[in-house]
Amino acid sequence: MTNLTTNTIFNDVPKPWGIYFQDTATAIAEGITETHDIIMFYMIIVTTTVTYITYSIVVTFGKNPISYKYMIHGTTTEVIWTIFPAVVTIFIATPSFVTTYTSDEVIDPAMTIKAIGYQWYWVYEYSDFINDSGETIQTESYIIPDDTTEEGQTHSTDVDNRTVAPIDTHIRFVVTANDVIHDFFVPSTGMKIDACPGRTNQTSAIIQREGVFYGQCSETCGTAHSNMPIVVEAVTTPKFTEWTNEQ
């Protein structure tokens, strides 16, 4: 998707054989991506070091049936390989804790969207908004079959009713299920939380840019598990107000 203001092209659509994150749309998703990059950096160092040590051992002692223990042991070596993993763990844990606790924060949200998982579709309730009939705004979201997909819609990931949400707004997502366990997962927003029958879980997001963000149920919930895509369309506040007035 292209942002018309900055002329920046964002990767918001899942791609075949994709091996990295989609472009972030929230601070939480950005923190998750940065945490991943930090951990991968240290894992490369650890993997390289362990591989080198293993190779050196095989080359040095592989053909030597007898080795003298006092020539291959040393206090300095023992101290190094004890302290080094501890230091790496600290560097990995620090950003992980920050991201984890930030994603759990739901303080004074501006609005709430309730997502209810069914076999096999989603229902969204906007409990803060009432329509002309005096009822809470509610939409049902079904996958668009391949034989009815139109130009601009994505294969097996688009829906008939998208979840419309305003940008720059603290939104609380309350997630539950009606039958079996589902999972509400939208990678670009950093939201991933189980939808459990008889229980409500919550997460939050402040979407920082306009766009259409694709997700999927990530809990095996039955034969049509793959037919439960999630599409969040982030719009400006005036556009969101116009959308609610049409419901």
Automatic annotation (TrEMBL):
List the SUPFAM superfamilies hit by this protein, alphabetically. Cupredoxins, Cytochrome c oxidase subunit II-like, transmembrane region
Phosphoprotein recorded as keyword: no
Where in or outside the cell it occurs: the entry states:
Membrane; Mitochondrion inner membrane
Under InterPro entries, the record lists: CcO_II, CcO_II-like_C, CcO_II_C, Copper_CuA, Cupredoxin, Cyt_c_oxidase_su2, Cyt_c_oxidase_su2_TM_dom, Cyt_c_oxidase_su2_TM_sf
Ranges where the Cytochrome oxidase subunit II copper A binding domain occurs: 108-246
Q: What is its main location?
A: membrane
Q: Which UniProt keywords apply?
A: Copper, Electron transport, Membrane, Metal-binding, Mitochondrion, Mitochondrion inner membrane, Oxidoreductase, Respiratory chain, Translocase, Transmembrane, Transmembrane helix, Transport
Any transmembrane segments, and where?
Answer: 39-58, 79-98
Q: Report the catalytic activity.
A: 4 Fe(II)-[cytochrome c] + O2 + 8 H(+)(in) = 4 Fe(III)-[cytochrome c] + 2 H2O + 4 H(+)(out)
According to the UniProt entry, its GO molecular function terms are:
copper ion binding; cytochrome-c oxidase activity; oxidoreductase activity
Q: What cofactors does the UniProt entry give for this protein?
A: Cu cation
User: Single Gene Ontology BP term?
Assistant: ATP synthesis coupled electron transport
Note on cofactor: Binds a copper A center.
User: In what way does this protein cross or attach to the membrane?
Assistant: Multi-pass membrane protein
- In its keyword annotation, does this UniProt entry include Mitochondrion? yes
Cellular component terms per the entry's GO annotation = mitochondrial inner membrane
List residues of the Cytochrome oxidase subunit II transmembrane region profile domain: 13-107
Function summary: Component of the cytochrome c oxidase, the last enzyme in the mitochondrial electron transport chain which drives oxidative phosphorylation. The respiratory chain contains 3 multisubunit complexes succinate dehydrogenase (complex II, CII), ubiquinol-cytochrome c oxidoreductase (cytochrome b-c1 complex, complex III, CIII) and cytochrome c oxidase (complex IV, CIV), that cooperate to transfer electrons derived from NADH and succinate to molecular oxygen, creating an electrochemical gradient over the inner membrane that drives transmembrane transport and the ATP synthase.
**Similarity comment:** Belongs to the cytochrome c oxidase subunit 2 family.
Q: What is this protein called?
A: Cytochrome c oxidase subunit 2
- Give the source species: Magnusiomyces tetraspermus
